[in-house]
Structures are given as C-alpha cells and as structure tokens.
Amino acid sequence: RRGELIVFDKLARGLVSHVLLPVPTKMGKGVLVAPTVFGNVMLGPTAEDIEDRAGTQSTPAGLRGLLEKGRAIMPRLLEEEVTAVYAGLRAATEHADYQIAADPDRRYVCVGGIRSTGLTASMAIAEHVAGMLKEVGLELSPKDEFAPIRMPNLGEALPRPYQDDARIRAHPQYGRIVCHCERATEGEIRDACHAPIPARSVDGLRRRTRATLGRCQGFFCSARVAELLGAETGRPVEAILGLEDE
Q1: What is the block-wise mean pLDDT of the chain (246 residues), using blocks of 10 residues?
Q2: What is the separation of C-alpha 4 from the centre of its chain, rounded to a whole number of angstroms?
Q3: Which candidate, 69, 125, 70, places its Cα nearest to that of 99?
Q4: pTM of the predicted structure, to 2 decimals
Q5: What is the dihedral of CA 157, 161, 164, 168, to 10 degrees?
Q6: Which residue among 16, 102, 155, 164 is least enclosed by CB atoms within 10 Å?
C-alpha cells in the first residue's frame, strides 16, 4: 500500500496546533494535516494498493488528490511553501486485522499486515510475540549485559545541541552548524558516524541528524556533510556522493 505525502515549510507551523482529521470511513482515517516533531506540517498520506513492492515514486494523481483534500481541510495551508514530497510502502493484506500466528513445529512466529496503528501498538505486539515464542518452546531470559541504545533527540520539543550552551562549551563542535535549515551540527554528525549503529551514507546521516532534510534539501550543505562523513568513516567523498564513475 503506497502512501504519498507533502511536507510544508516550517513557516506553516503556526497554522497547525494539533492533528486535523476528516471523518474516518471504512477504508481508513483518510488524509490528515498534522504538525511534525521537526517543526514542519505534513499533508497525507494517501493509501493506494499496488502490485510493485518497490513502487516508492510519487505520482501526479496522488499529489493532485492530496492537494484537493488538503484544500478541503485547511485552504490556507496550500499557500505555504513545500519543503519535500515523499512516498513509501507499508504492509497490507486482504485482512482487516494484524496477521500474527505461530508454527510450534518450526518454532516460528509470523508477524505481518501491521497497519498504521502498528507504531502505537509495537510494544504490545512485541510483548505478545515474546509470549508466543515462549509457548512454542523458546527459552527467554533477560541479558545481564544488555545496554539500551539511546537515540539522540531529533525533535523540537527538547533543546537541540546547538541550543545547549554547556554542551557547546565542553565540545565546541556542537556549536558549529553544518545544515542551517535543520540546525544540524558538526558534533551530531560525528556522533552519528560513531554510534552503536553508525551512519555510513548521507541518507543514514539524514535519518540520525536531520542534515539535508530542510528547505534546501541539501543544496547548501551536502558537500560539507559528505566531507565530514568521509573524514569520520574513511570513505572517499566521491563514493559518498555517487560520483565515482563521473
């Protein structure tokens, strides 16, 4: 099921203080207008069943539909600048509910068809599946050496590194902004390159630091981001930017 959405510039954030939903139908909740944790405003997503499991491209019809529904919910939003358009695929089956089943003979549990409520339900699903695994014979016990991975704050609800005077005094690289649209700093990029699950590409850094995700979509900062990534990982900048064959 393909979902397309439009992300509007941070200047639109003053229009929206909470999620705005149309009246849901039997097909789902429909297109919504919502503030994001990054300070933008999102319009979407669509819901289109397709056969292509790699069909993550946006479509003219999908974008027209989004703008039409957005105009009905909040006409003023369409006057704002668009930062980016995205499309993604999510699991879908012919069933109305999650498909969670165990095969005791193979000690195998299948978890699929998790709909858009899956993020909210993820912890409960994990607990339920752990119980099923135990029932089919898998011994479960806590790991004494387990160390939880702490993800850095990427949202606007808490202070970002560039706003933390004490942190900047201790480590000046947190005061050196690389991506000015999203206020991502040199220190955050270096941390992401050496995290327990390290970033190895610009896309990886984007997901961990917000670098290149802003209004200019990396036009201003991509070269510097790639340079820092290369210095921290030892990869050639040309390889990072995909320019090796040019």
Answers
A1: 95 95 78 95 93 94 95 96 93 86 86 85 94 86 86 90 96 97 96 92 93 94 94 86 59
A2: 14
A3: 125
A4: 0.83
A5: 180
A6: 155
